[in-house]
Design brief:
- The chain is elongated, with a radius of gyration of 20 Å.
- The protein has a domain of about 50 residues.
- By secondary structure, it is mainly α.
- The longest helix has 28 residues.
- Keywords: Membrane, Transmembrane, Transmembrane helix.
Length: about 120
């Protein structure tokens, strides 16, 4: 049986992501897309001014931050350990904000189904 280290890349093997042109292209495209969605969500929040719109806007802003951290990692500005810590931390925040926005959008009281005569 092989030790666990055979399945987990060593820290030196992660250095292959630094300055990877395909990764830079993908992250820039993702960053541009999420930045566009974030800008649109800011406009929607300014128009509606509800907690739900604010939560979605913050979640999309966190996606932009994820892209910045990813690009910083590929450009060797952000260590891989910080990349994972921030990235997974933002994943939790994004999921929490989206779920809270959905929860707040639900019915506020008991609603009874329409009765047929």
């Amino acid at each position: 049986m092989e030790p666990l280290t055979a399945f987990v890349p060593a820290a030196t093997e992660w250095s292959g992501v630094h300055y990877s042109l395909p990764l830079i292209g993908i992250i820039l495209a993702a960053g541009l897309g999420t930045a566009t969605l974030f800008a649109l969500s800011v406009l929607a929040f300014v128009r509606r001014r509800t907690r739900q719109y604010l939560l979605v806007t913050v979640a999309l802003g966190a996606l932009v931050v994820r892209s910045v951290v990813g690009l910083g990692t590929v450009l060797a500005l952000v260590p891989m350990s910080i990349h994972h810590l921030v990235g997974h931390g933002l994943d939790v925040l994004i999921a929490a904000f989206v779920l809270l926005a959905i929860y707040l959008s639900g019915p506020t009281g008991h609603q009874h189904p329409p009765q047929s005569n």
